Amino acid sequence: MKGKVIIFSAPSGAGKTTIVQHLLKVYPQLEFSVSACSREKRNGETNGVDYYFISVEEFKQKIANGEFAEYEEVYKDNFYGTLKSEIERIWKKGKHIIFDMDVMGGLNLRLQFGDNALAIFVMPPSVDHLELRLKSRETETPESIARRIGKAGQEIKKASLFDNIILNDHLETALAEAEKLVGDFLK
Ligand code: ADP
Ligand code: 5GP
């Protein structure tokens, strides 16, 4: 079967992982697409659950082999991508796929899947909020936070290209809005 695809994109720190993890609990017919990535594993992350952690060399080999549905070098030497095999794996189980990915990757996948895709942009209240949230998440170095914030302005400019925009200011409101949009799309 070919199921539906739901894509959440946003600048880093806007809250897309929080929203996606909530939706996975609410809708058992969804499964998270585990991306491949070449960044270091953070404390608390598990290989094969959060990402397939691979080296830059292995990532480049998979690009050359045509194994990715999409990929981006989101930050220098930090490649992230969706393996075609991951999409097939989830569809084979009869589930719909939910993706958490950067803005360019999200727009790319949306084009590939057409009407079968719902692409949602998670908007932070401001870029200052992103910085505060990334600091409070305690996963990034000051350099990594600066790199992420440095990209946010360009990413926010692309928000109108998505099917919907969810403002993630008050979390409970954003979660309820996400549930409604996704529930309607899955009907
Ligand atoms: P992303 O996946 O977009 O990088 P996360 O979901 O990891 O973002 O959220 C970044 C941090 O902000 C996390 O520590 C998360 O708990 C927190 N957070 C998410 N939504 C909100 C919100 N509405 N208000 C305050 N903090 C939030
Ligand atoms: P993080 O390092 O915070 O886990 O992710 C950094 C960025 O890469 C986030 O915007 C995240 O959504 C994005 N990302 C994760 N997986 C993929 C993917 O498969 N493809 C693309 N293009 N971006 C991804």
Give the CATH topology. Rossmann fold
Most strands sheet: 5 strands, parallel
Helix content: 40-55%
Residue runs with pLDDT of under 50 for 5 or more positions:
none
The CATH level-2 architecture is identified as 3-Layer(aba) Sandwich
Quickly count the helices: 7
Q: Would you write up a description of this structure?
A:
The structure is a single chain. The protein contains 7 helices and 9 strands, in the order βαβββαββαβαβααβα. By secondary structure, the protein is α/β, with parallel strands linked by helices. The protein has a single domain, classed as Rossmann fold (3-Layer(aba) Sandwich). The strands form 2 sheets. A 5-stranded parallel sheet has the order 2-7-1-8-9, with helices on both faces. Strands 4-3-6-5 form a 4-stranded mixed sheet. Strand 5 and strand 6 form a beta hairpin. Helix 5 runs antiparallel to helix 6. 33% of the residues are buried. The site of adenosine-5'-diphosphate has 14 residues, from helix 1, helix 5 and helix 7.
